[in-house]
Amino acid sequence: MAGRSRRGSPPKPTPRPDRSFYSSGKAFGRFGIRSFPPQIMPEPHSHGHIEFNWLTRGRMDYQFDGGPCSIGQERLVAFWAGIPHQTIGLDGADEARQINIYLPMDAFLEMPQLGRLTETLMGGGVIQLSPDCIGLETLERWHQDYRSGNSLRTDIVRTEIGTMFRRAAITGWDLLLPAWVEEGTGTRTRTGSPVRYVVRMVRHIVENIADPLSAESIAEVVGLHPNYATNLFTKVMRISVQKFVVRMRLIRARSLLFDGSLSIANVAFQSGFVSQTQFYEHFRKAYGMTPSQMRKDTIEG
Known about the structure:
Blueprint: H1 2-8, H2 19-22, E1 32-36, E2 49-55, E3 59-64, E4 67-71, E5 77-80, E6 85-91, E7 98-104, H3 105-110, H4 116-122, E8 126-128, H5 136-147, H6 151-171, E9 174-177, H7 192-207, H8 215-222, H9 226-237, H10 241-259, H11 264-270, H12 276-287, H13 291-300
């Protein structure tokens, strides 16, 4: 009986190794899932995630940096939470539940083959996914996996979110609020042009992360002076270009480590680090362990 119990038990909960990194700044937030009664927000706020909202019934009225948007029931809505946003109204939402998913911005940017979807969210657009992409049953299972406290179950959820996004990128989505980059004028407080520059810089970094990347070469992509380009990047992304590049290289390295077939030296090289010494220094600072320790912990569960 006891033997069956042990075999049937889930893996022992393991802490997130990158907890300290996500607590050190506002550019990237930690992954999370919440289920709670919908409520009016007293003031706008912003944070470093792609945020998903699901309302079980009724309607929520939002303001996204001055742009009004209404979210209906039983459809998953996604937006970049780095935009100041606020729930300002509820209609027919008595006894409703709201499920929020908070996907770290760096994890989102590492997801491949999203194309226009990435540009839309990065540009400040609000999208609604189709019912065949996601349903309440899956959201509730993700919430249970997250609340289990087991990092491996949480990693599976994040992988499934990436698959959901890839499906949406292929099948399409409903646009609830246009991106800044698609607007000529409007009531929103930021202009399209600066955001467009930052979106292009981010795309260049992510697509060329294994190559040498300097502030000058990144600014050249958008035709701006390096000082202006880097200041603009920091203002919009709330992290410097240099730190952003390092973070995206660490995300790529972590993904390659889980593959298990590459040597640590090759992981460092394919992630864009110029030396193993530099790689180990940044990795330990961000994750609190060496690359070898993370790979070992993952394989052994």
